[in-house]
Queue: 2 jobs
Job 1
Amino acid sequence: MKIAQNTVVTVNYKLSDAQNNLIEDGAQPMVYLHGGYENTLPKIEEELDGKDVGYASTIQIEPEDAFGDYDPTLLKVEERNRLPEPLEVGMQFEGVAEGSEDEPTIFTVTEIADDKVVLDGNHPLAGMALRFELSVIDVRAATEEEIAHGHVHGAHGHHHGDEPDEGEEGDHFRSQPLQ
Ligand SMILES: [Zn+2]
């Protein structure tokens, strides 16, 4: 089956930066709903569209097509006592960036001093060109429910039961591998 709108694609991947430093070895394949549901980077969908099981390719995606340029204004220094303990570099918190009242931003702790903490609101992969080694291992038609939800359900069939809610606590795959 060829990859097209509303197919569920399983792809092995390895992610490196432009200098070939490994970022993620993709121990788990990425499973995503193809067709503009923003389950994965548009450039990856573009590359795989129309392809079949067994297709393998390496693509490089520039920052503007991945996680954007690094924005130094998204760095902020916070009083340590405003953050929970214990605190470690690499922890992430949701906050609102200076001057933006819309979407909350995920801030990563990048430095801890005695009484101050540096928080970086950039995506950890911002400003980086990303090199993906991709290898398609499965393609199947999405179910109507998956299409309605805009995401893939569990490999062995995710059941929402009779509850009217969308049950986000279930075994939904979050197919974006980069978080
Ligand atoms: Zn669902």
Job 2
Amino acid sequence: MWLSAFQPLLTAYTGLTIAPSDYDKAVRFLQHRVAELRLFDLSSYLGLLETQSLAADQEWQHIVQVLTVPESFFLRDKGQMQILKEHILPELIQRNHHSRQLRLWSAGCSTGEEPYSLALLLQQLLPDIHDWDVLILGTDINDKVLAKARAGLYTRWSLRDVGPEVLAYFHPAAHGQLALDASIRDRVSFRRTNLLQTPFPDFEINDIDLILCRNVFIYFDQQAIATVLAKFTQTLKPEGYLLTGHGELYQQALNGLETRLFLESVVYQRIANKRAALPPLLLPVIEAIAPMVSTKTVTDSTAPKSATVALPLTASARMKQAYLQEDYAAVLAIAQTQPSQGTDFETYYWSAKAFACIGQYHAAETRLQDALALKPRSVSCHYLLAHVKESQNDLENAKALLQKTILLDETFVPAYLDLAALCEHEEPDKYQQLHTQALTCLKQLPPEHYFEDIAAHAGDLIHLLPS
Ligand SMILES: C[S@@+](CC[C@H](N)C(=O)[O-])C[C@H]1O[C@@H](n2cnc3c(N)ncnc32)[C@H](O)[C@@H]1O
């Protein structure tokens, strides 16, 4: 009853739908708010939300902070990052070299990793960036994530997929966090925008060359997607690009947009006013796009780049490959093909990683418990479970799990660093001790020693430790 009254209002205001796995949480939240605000019943609460008032605005912030998924990380989706780096951004730079203007928008940017990733890519691609007028704008509906984005402070978890060339832009900061260098941080501006309710194009959001709106529509109602898509199309420059998460526009009419197919992902481009002939497709065209979430093809990374090879890989090997290509939908789709009886450790583990990456922490935890039942001493499972707990704000259990990870493998430096970060504030002695232990371990390991769980080499981690 509570949800059937609340859901239409939520969707009308934000576009969001509530996943069945979140029904209980949503009802508990509503009951709590009604009690906290000393309201008579749910209708009074819904009445408050419908007013145009500061109180309603604050209440909507409470709601989005509880019901949205803020999961994000740097250089998320390597395939799309490659398309941006090798094709789209160079094309935009070339196209705009007379005006020296570039306008990029990360819509639904959460804690800022996505627009900062754009700034990091531009740093490599545009050596004379100071002579350009560059807008990199990050927007989100949630004030809390925007405050974090502006601060530019991250844990190693947000940097789990980056190499040394990106880590070089981070410095050790308080509470074991890593601070993004001001030269990159100051290039990005942030502002609150509700994709559904805020009217745009507006004074700032207009004539955009590239919109990234990834992993946002996945939580949206289809009609809301259509509305936002039409606004995006009006906001893009002719031939400007839109990137969404994989398959997020499946079932949508692409009025005014056309698809460009790359091996790694579909991207959308606003049709030019005067239709110029399109340049030839940049990469081999995917013959058919599966009418499912994933458009990626699992390829053999050791094979020549142009060849798409169907190798007789095991399911878990395919899951790992799909995970490394950040195609989490494919990981979960492969898991679903496995018989529920006798599911193996790897299937649970890669499913858990995929669920954690899309912010479905409860599902991730269940898979990890299943994996740990099969391998109780798995270091990777304990470490990932610690991060799931941390993401759920269960810091005590996160600490206990990191401690256990260290007991299981005393050379596993990522656990020392993350535990140190969690202890710094309240247990400064322990923080120091953990850092010293991490440094001692790192010095004993060869620089090329690879920590697969955080995709980093020992040599990269040393420079992130305060000396
Ligand atoms: C999973 S995060 C995606 C972050 C980033 N784009 C990425 O892919 O890593 C989804 C974000 O969309 C935001 N969001 C949800 N509904 C929105 C709306 N109506 N307007 C603006 N942002 C919204 C949420 O607050 C959340 O931060």
